[in-house]
Amino acid sequence: MIRFLIKRTAQAAVVLLLVSVIVFVLLHQLPGGPARAILGPKATPQAVEHFNHQQGYDRSLPLQYVKYLGRLLTGDLGESYKLNQTVSSLLADRLPKTLVLTGLAIALAAVLAIPLGILQAVRRGRAADYLLTGMAFLAYATPVFFLGLVLILVFSQRLQLFPAEAPQADTVGGILGDLPGLVLPVVTMALGVIAAFSRYMRSAVLDNLGEEYVRTARAKGQSSARIMARHVLRNALIPLATLLGLYLPTLFSGALVVESMFNYPGMGLLFWNAAQGSDFPVLLGVTFVVGVATVIGSLITDIAYAVLDPRIRSVS
Amino acid sequence: MTATAAGTAPAAAETAVPTPSLARRTLAVFTRNKLALAGAVVLVALSAFCFLGPLFHSTDQVHTDLGQANLAPGSPGHPLGTTDLGYDMLGRLMTGGRTSLEVGLAAGLLATFIGTVYGSVAGYFGGWLDAAMMRITDAALAIPALFLLVVVAAIVTPSKLVLILIIASVAWLSPARLIRGEALALRSRDYIHAMRLMGGGGTRAVFRHIVPNAIGTVVVNATFQIADAILYVAYLSFLGLSIPPPAADWGSMLSAGITYTQVGYWWLIFPPGIAIVLVVAAFNFIGDGLRDAFDVRLQKSGGNR
């Protein structure tokens, strides 16, 4: 177990280092360098030179990378070109709000997807199963933003049930206090996750229903409900929990679209605004943080899986 | 494949030993798998609509006409209404669809090609080269594709060609991993050893043996890649980072419609949205059908967008 932990953590560290290289390379791929991007095409050569010197872009690339890495390690992600704040302080403000949005979406998805998946597995091959399968395939093919627009048209414009703008409060508490405003963004984000999780749950329950231990339990005279709750569900939920870790990139992408659409003041909106305004320190800072979160997410997933299921350890 | 043999009973008796050709197997699956067939039909219909449609319904998609702005569907000459700048919606759906389909197809194929070569090289040569190459894909995959796409699209101003290159430069990662696994399994086969004993080199092994033998995985993955690429185009356009106006694609049409949701101009939203859903679902169904045809086992990521 310890060996597995060390090996897996070392691997994650290497990947993290490479993520930093990718972000660094992207920073230097800007046409004409970052100076042109921020000072504009009409900047004088002197201004460009001054900017490059001030930002350290005139030194050799390896040296710049080492400096960059050193700053990353101390949590310094640079300073926004537009917002007059450090990227880390912007993230400290926005990241929790994104976590609230994704957390609510995941909670809603889990609450709905688990019973739906069980229902489909139990009623396999019947009308309900086909209907839900069809809906899941439809949800796979539907871009998040189209779904969001349809929800706005129906529930905000036509029925006037929920506002089309997300809560605009400064604090996490303020955002949670405006529940009607959260409904459409959270539902938009959750639907794709529900489709994926319920498909997964369906096949996990089906796999477990075919296992010997279910037959044994049945032979002992246990009721179907009890078998489902005590045996099948427990075993089917372990992989679902780990699926969550692998789903992080999708969730972040979803947050990017949903936040820019509903004007939700999270990390995704920060990123989108930075893309519109060529605010490269913010763009690359967010990209780096999202990459780190994904790597750590899959590391935790693997470790959790190894703890829950000893067979994994011996294989890897 | 017994069902295939039964379907072509007279011929099957004589040609029972050789396996049916790739094309024949594909055809057989398409006639059996109704969803794949439906996907193919939808795809042909949508392509005809986008590429041949303008011959029957010709519109001006370059010059704005504010006198004709925001007309509801059913207005004379504008069966699907007009946009806020007076473009005819039906005609725009065609021109926009051409961009989405062309860029999606080209980017999906290019990504598959790059991924196939990269993955076969890593898998065939193995060792430290494989380890290094795979850590690079791990790192790039750790950053969600959409974030990478947005950063790159913010750096360069996209044209059609640039858009294809941007999407392919991000999307090749997952086929690379997939094909690498396939190549790892193939490299220890006897015919590869035999080829090496006869003096065949690495290039020959990769292009003459590994890639042709992994072709099922490659083709199946290509269809899913195209579906994903069409979605990526739409996402980028929706976020305002695609080909600038007056050019359009289905994603940018949706993004133009967002301003008018509060006044209920639904015809700006539904046609392009439904078109995207149809074409993406069609490619996914075709991919599922092909997967059954080639009997390929691969995890469809289902997300990672």
TrEMBL record, chain A:
Alphabetized SUPFAM superfamilies for the sequence: MetI-like
Subcellular localization: Cell membrane
PROSITE patterns linked to this entry: ABC_TM1
GO biological process: transmembrane transport
Keywords: Cell membrane, Membrane, Transmembrane, Transmembrane helix, Transport
Protein topology in the membrane: Multi-pass membrane protein
Pfam families referenced in this protein's UniProt entry, alphabetically: BPD_transp_1 (PF00528), BPD_transp_1_N (PF19300)
GO CC, alphabetical: plasma membrane
Chain segments annotated as transmembrane: 12-30, 99-119, 131-155, 175-197, 236-262, 282-308
Limits of the ABC transmembrane type-1 domain: 95-301
Family: Belongs to the binding-protein-dependent transport system permease family.
PANTHER family for the chain: DIPEPTIDE TRANSPORT SYSTEM PERMEASE PROTEIN DPPB-RELATED
Protein name: Peptide ABC transporter integral membraneprotein
Automatic annotation (TrEMBL), chain B:
Keywords, alphabetical: Cell membrane, Membrane, Transmembrane, Transmembrane helix, Transport
Location(s), subcellular: Cell membrane
Pfam families for this protein: BPD_transp_1, OppC_N
Annotated ranges, domain ABC transmembrane type-1: 97-287
InterPro entries: BP-dependent_transpt_permease, MetI-like, MetI-like_sf, OppC_N
Protein's membrane topology: Multi-pass membrane protein
Main location: membrane
Keyword Transmembrane helix in annotation: yes
Residue ranges crossing the lipid bilayer per the database entry: 35-56, 103-127, 218-243, 263-287
Stored CDD domains: TM_PBP2
Cellular compartments per GO CC: plasma membrane
Full protein name: Binding-protein-dependent transport systemsinner membrane component
